[in-house]
Write a structure and sequence with these properties.
Strand content: 15-25%
Radius of gyration: 17 Å
Order of helices and strands: EHEEHHEHEHEHEHEHE
Helix content: 25-40%
Structural class: alpha/beta
Number of helices: 8
Shape: globular
Length: 260
């Protein structure tokens, strides 16, 4: 059936907390995102060697952490001792990666909503989804309601899960059935309609560069919202909003203003 319910979250979301304004997925970065007026962040949750959740986009270090190892090789304590800030600027030297629990509690204290992208290591898709689901259910237990993973039942202060990995969403659905889910894609798989239905998703999250009006209309006609990543040009933001896109994330917090 055609989509009936308006997107209940912020329309413009800060990518990885601070976009390009500060080190991604760090407490310092989250603070910068808030200073730019954003109260909705996209972030990444991954499991360490000892099964604890930490905010990290890349399983293997090298891009933002000067190390040759990977998240699944190290314990939570070992990763928290790494420097996730120097790559950005000397000002942030020594800024550690942020633990998932710390991130959630900070966001709750500062009224920041989260789109949690589940980022499993290779072969760890199902368990990462299950654990992130368990943790999120625990931290938001006072807000989660039966039917909360449906468009009509969503509680706007409860996070939204998303993932490129279908098994990660399956795991999250298993342990957190009342937290809403979105399927992340780059190129549209042939079975995208079936996956959205199987996973009981509320939204399709897609690359804005691949989005057409025809696809957008079809997704809406099937009853799902459309969230786009990562939109850094204000003109493109306005174009997508005119097309009818429900929400998007951005790196350019200095150019794109938050829209609630």
């Amino acid at each position: 059936m055609p989509i009936q319910t308006q997107w209940p979250f912020a329309k413009i979301v800060a990518h990885r907390g601070a976009g390009t304004m500060a080190p991604e997925n760090t407490l310092a970065g989250f603070r910068v995102g808030l200073q730019h007026g954003y109260h909705a962040f996209e972030t990444d949750a991954m499991l360490t060697k000892d099964g604890q959740a930490i905010l990290m986009h890349d399983p293997r270090f090298g891009r933002i952490i000067r190390d040759t190892r990977s998240v699944p090789e190290l314990t939570f304590a070992e990763i928290r001792n790494l420097d996730a800030g120097s790559w950005y600027s000397p000002f942030y030297a020594g800024e550690p990666p942020m633990g998932f629990e710390t991130a959630v509690h900070w966001c709750q204290a500062n009224r920041v909503w989260l789109n949690i992208e589940i980022k499993p290591g290779l072969g760890d898709e199902l368990e990462t989804g299950r654990e992130v689901g368990r943790l999120t259910s625990r931290y938001y237990q006072d807000l989660i309601r039966d039917g909360g993973a449906t468009q009509q039942g969503i509680v706007p202060s409860v996070p939204l899960f998303s993932s490129f990995k279908v098994d990660a969403l399956r795991g999250a659905k298993e342990t957190a059935p009342n937290i809403p889910r979105g399927l992340l894609v780059d190129e549209m798989p042939e079975n995208w309609r079936e996956l959205l239905a199987e996973l009981d998703c509320v939204a399709l999250h897609c690359n804005h560069k691949r989005l057409t009006q025809e696809l957008l209309d079809e997704v809406h006609e099937l009853g799902y919202w459309v969230f786009c990543y990562t939109v850094n040009d204000p003109k493109r933001v306005n174009e997508l909003l005119r097309m009818g896109v429900d929400a998007m994330c951005t790196d350019r917090l200095d150019l794109v203003r938050p829209i609630v």
